[in-house]
Write a structure and sequence with these properties.
31% of the residues lie in helices and 17% in strands. The chain is of the alpha/beta class. β5 and β6 form a beta hairpin. It is globular, with a radius of gyration of 19 Å. The protein binds 3,4-dihydroxybenzoic acid. 3,4-dihydroxybenzoic acid (DHB) binds next to loops.
């Protein structure tokens, strides 16, 4: 079950996605103890941020939507938490992924240098948060040039390998992936949440205090699979495939689309704190039942030109859906 990304060994292919369990060292340790092969801390910025007002996160029936507003204690305080987390995780052989965001290219470099003091195994460069205004005017993930500029700045600010986290909300995600690869990225996390909105029928008002938010969970999976398939067809970099993986079968699909390993986020909300051990067990059982020996056997199957699936193993949970397939 072990795998490697950017020269870093993960004992399992499941990665705690950034944000889900904050940066509390004890929570990050809990993810590692229950089956995560790497854990990502909540994104930090140079200055502390309070985040948005409540309501900030809601289960809307087909996944979650959230607009936290990047609440974090600022990079200088975060680095102390990361140090503690790195120490706890090292004892378990599980790498720590620090996560950074910034308003300017230069501040991405400064934030990378600060979190490097905790010596995380990897730094995730969050250029795709859907919920904060940037002085840049749009997400850095929106343009190949801006994404590449951030990547170059981070690479020249730290010796620690970096993963660039991309947004699904772009016209051509493969072009963005090629740009960050050419700029020196060591890997890609795909994808961040997809911007969306809930509206309350009675009042007509947006449900989230921020108005819009990022969609995750089941509704995001087909979008994430498409993005991972496109990126893995465009660049050689390892990908943490993240978005809507709730079961072991979802993880099989993500690896088949070309992911090196699999991010787990909303699943923790829907399946509880044993999500990692449950998904890992389901993945192992699926591989054994299908006669596969290791993860490499299924990685990138969407690119191998095999015939279309003959059996739909995971039908949509909509009564009567099969009648639409006549
Ligand atoms: C937030 C940041 C993200 O990168 C994301 O995908 C969702 C929410 C936030 O803190 O608002």
């Amino acid at each position: 079950m072990s795998c490697r990304i950017a020269g870093v060994r993960l004992p399992t292919p499941l990665v705690l996605a950034s944000g889900v369990w904050g940066t509390s060292p004890t929570l990050l340790e809990r993810a590692a103890r229950t089956g995560a092969g790497a854990v990502a801390a909540k994104t930090c910025t140079l200055a502390p941020r309070r985040g948005h007002r409540n309501p900030t996160a809601i289960d809307w029936g087909h996944g979650l939507i959230n607009a936290m507003g990047l609440p974090n204690p600022g990079a200088a305080e975060e680095v102390e938490l990361l140090r503690d987390a790195a120490r706890r995780l090292a004892a378990l052989g599980v790498p720590l992924i620090a996560s950074i965001a910034a308003d300017t290219v230069e501040d991405f470099g400064r934030a990378a240098a600060i979190v490097s003091e905790a010596d995380p195994a990897l730094i995730e460069v969050n250029i795709s948060c859907p919920n904060v205004e940037s002085s840049h005017g749009e997400m850095f993930a929106s343009s190949a040039e801006a994404a590449a500029a951030v990547t170059r700045q981070v690479k020249s600010s730290t010796p620690i390998p970096c993963l660039v986290k991309l947004s699904p909300n772009v016209a051509d995600i493969a072009a963005i992936a090629r740009a960050v690869a050419a700029a020196g990225a060591d890997g890609i996390t795909a994808i961040n949440t997809m911007p969306g909105m809930l509206v309350d029928a009675e009042s007509g008002a947006p449900v989230l205090a921020n108005g819009t938010g990022g969609i995750s969970g089941a509704a995001l999976k087909p979008i994430a699979l498409r993005c991972v398939h496109e990126i893995s067809g465009a660049v050689e970099l390892p990908i943490i495939g993240t978005g809507g993986v709730i079961t072991g079968t979802d993880a099989v699909e993500m690896l088949s689309a070309g992911a090196a390993c699999v991010g787990i986020g909303s699943a923790i909300v829907f399946r509880g704190e044993n999500a990692f051990s449950s998904i890992l067990e389901e993945l192992k059982v699926w591989l054994a039942e299908h006669g596969y020996r290791c993860l490499e056997d299924i990685r990138g199957r969407t690119h191998r030109g095999a015939g279309a699936a003959v059996v739909v193993t995971n039908p949509p949970p909509v009564p009567g859906w099969e009648k639409t397939r006549a």
